[in-house]
Amino acid sequence: MKNTLVSIVCFFVLLITACQSNTDSSSRDVEAKAIIKVNTINTTTPLLGKLGWKLKEQPLLVIGSKEGELHDQFYRAYGAITLENGTFVATNSETSEIRFYSPDGTFRKSIGQQGQGPGDFAEFSNMRLYKLSKNEFVVNDPGNDRFQIYNNDGEHLKVHTMPKIEGAGNPSMNNVLSNGSWLIWSTEGSAVLRGNDGDIIEKKYLLHLFDPNFNYDKVLHRFTARKKYVNTLKGITHYPYIPLTAQPSHTTGTKAGVLFATGVNPVISRFDTSGQLTDQYKWEASRIKTEDIWERYKDEFYLATLEGRRKEQYAHFLKQDLPIPEYTPVISELKVDEDGNIWAERFQLPWHEHTTWDVLNADGEWLTTIQVPDHLRMTEIGSDYVLGFSTKNGFTQLVSYPIVKNSK
Question: CA dihedral in degrees (152, 158, 164, 165; nearest 10)?
Answer without folding.
Answer: -50
